C-alpha cells in the first residue's frame, strides 16, 4: 500500500498537484513564506460540488455563470471552466514563444454562489433534510432543491454507453457468486481437485 | 534515484534480482538441474470459464461483504456444532471433526506462521 503523503504544516497549496515541478518550485524545502489564512469550512457545510453551475459575485467576470471544473478544499478555491482567465504562453522552447492560451484563476468560495436551476438566478444555499431523510441543498430564496450534479469521469467514459471489448468480462459473469466458504486454503482445495499427493514436508530452516 | 539494483555499481558488482536456483552446482563446476526445483504450472482446462482479464464499466458495485473469520465460522462450523448439540453428541475434546486444528505441525500449508506465498 502506498504511504499517505505527508505535508509540513505550513505547506502552501497551489493549483498544481504536489508532485509536479510547479508545486516543487512553490514549496522548496527551506522556504518560509507568509501564511495563507483559510476560513475553516466543515465537510458537511461545503455546498459547491464539481459539475455545478455557479455565478461569480466579484472580480473580472462578475455576473457570469459557469461550470465548476475543480474544487480545492484546502484553500476554499473553485475553478470554473473558461471564466476568470488570464492569458499566458505555454510550451516555449528556444526562440518559439509557445502557444497563447487562457488559463483560469481560482475563485474563493465566498465570491461564488450556486444558481437556482428553475429561474437561473443566484441564491443562498442551506443543507436541509427531505421527508425521506435525504440531505439536500435547498435554496433559501425560493425553497427549491438543487440536485447534485451528475458525476462525469475524467477519462470521458459513460458507463451506460460502454461497449464491452473481447477482454472485458460481462456484468452477469462478474456478479456471479461461485464462492463456497470452507476451512481449506486455496492451495489445499486445488491439490484435492487435481489429485496431487504431497507427503514430503519442507526441511526446517531459520531466518533472522 | 531510489533503489540500489544490480543495474547500478561497477562491472564487478553482483546482486541477484531474486531468482531461486533450479539445481545443484557440483565441485567440478557442473550444474545438475533438479526437476523438483524447476517450477511447473499445472493449469486445469478452461472449458466454460467466462471470466476475462478486465471488468466491464457497466458492472454496478457489488453488495457482498468481505469475508471475516467470524462470518467464516458462522457459515461453516456453527451449523455443525448446533446440530451436534441438539443430537447430544457434542464433545469439547473432539473439535477436530469440525475442521478446527490443535496444532499446525505436520501440515503442508501452515496458517501460522504462514508458509505459502499468497
From TrEMBL, chain A:
CDD domains: KOW_RPL26. Keywords: Ribonucleoprotein, Ribosomal protein. It comes from Cirrhinus molitorella. Belongs to the universal ribosomal protein uL24 family. NCBIfam families: rplX_bact. Gene3D superfamilies: 2.30.30.30. Residues 47-74 form the KOW domain. This is Large ribosomal subunit protein uL24m.
From TrEMBL, chain B:
It is found in: Mitochondrion. Pfam families: MRP-L27. Keywords: Mitochondrion, Ribonucleoprotein, Ribosomal protein, Transit peptide. The keyword Ligase does not apply. Residues 1-21 are annotated as: Disordered. Signal peptide: none annotated. Its main location: mitochondrion. Belongs to the mitochondrion-specific ribosomal protein mL41 family. This is Mitochondrial ribosomal protein L41. It comes from Cirrhinus molitorella. The lineage of its organism: Eukaryota, Metazoa, Chordata, Craniata, Vertebrata.
Amino acid at each position: 500500500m502506498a504511504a499517505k503523503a505527508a505535508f509540513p504544516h505550513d505547506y502552501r497549496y497551489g493549483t498544481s498537484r504536489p508532485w509536479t515541478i510547479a508545486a516543487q518550485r512553490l514549496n522548496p524545502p527551506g522556504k518560509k513564506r507568509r501564511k495563507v489564512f483559510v476560513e475553516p469550512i466543515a465537510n458537511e457545510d461545503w455546498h459547491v460540488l464539481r459539475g455545478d453551475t455557479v455565478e461569480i459575485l466579484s472580480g473580472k467576470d462578475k455576473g457570469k455563470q459557469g461550470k465548476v471544473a475543480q474544487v480545492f478544499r484546502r484553500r476554499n478555491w473553485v475553478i470554473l471552466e473558461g471564466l476568470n482567465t488570464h492569458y499566458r504562453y505555454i510550451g516555449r522552447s528556444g526562440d518559439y514563444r509557445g502557444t497563447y492560451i487562457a488559463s483560469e484563476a481560482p475563485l474563493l468560495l465566498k465570491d461564488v454562489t450556486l444558481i437556482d436551476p428553475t429561474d437561473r438566478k443566484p441564491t443562498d444555499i442551506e443543507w436541509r433534510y427531505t421527508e425521506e431523510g435525504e440531505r439536500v441543498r435547498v435554496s433559501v430564496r425560493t425553497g427549491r432543491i438543487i440536485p447534485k450534479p451528475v458525476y462525469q469521469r475524467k477519462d470521458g467514459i459513460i458507463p451506460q454507453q460502454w461497449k464491452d471489448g473481447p477482454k472485458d468480462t460481462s456484468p452477469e459473469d462478474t456478479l456471479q457468486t461461485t464462492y463456497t466458504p470452507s476451512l481449506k486454503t486455496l492451495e489445499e482445495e486445488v491439490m484435492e481437485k487435481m489429485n496431487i499427493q504431497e507427503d514430503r514436508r519442507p526441511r526446517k530452516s531459520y531466518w533472522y | 534515484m531510489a533503489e540500489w539494483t544490480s543495474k547500478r555499481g561497477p562491472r564487478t558488482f553482483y546482486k541477484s534480482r531474486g531468482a531461486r536456483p533450479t539445481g545443484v552446482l557440483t565441485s567440478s563446476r557442473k550444474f545438475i538441474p533438479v526437476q523438483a526445483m524447476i517450477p511447473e504450472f499445472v493449469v486445469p482446462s478452461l472449458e466454460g470459464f467466462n471470466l476475462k482479464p478486465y471488468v466491464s464499466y457497466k458492472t454496478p458495485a457489488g453488495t457482498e461483504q468481505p469475508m471475516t473469520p467470524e462470518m467464516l465460522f458462522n457459515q461453516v462450523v456453527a451449523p455443525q456444532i448446533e446440530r451436534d448439540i441438539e443430537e447430544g453428541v457434542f464433545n469439547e475434546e473432539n473439535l477436530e471433526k469440525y475442521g478446527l486444528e490443535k496444532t499446525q505441525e505436520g501440515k503442508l500449508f501452515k496458517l501460522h506462521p504462514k508458509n505459502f506465498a499468497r
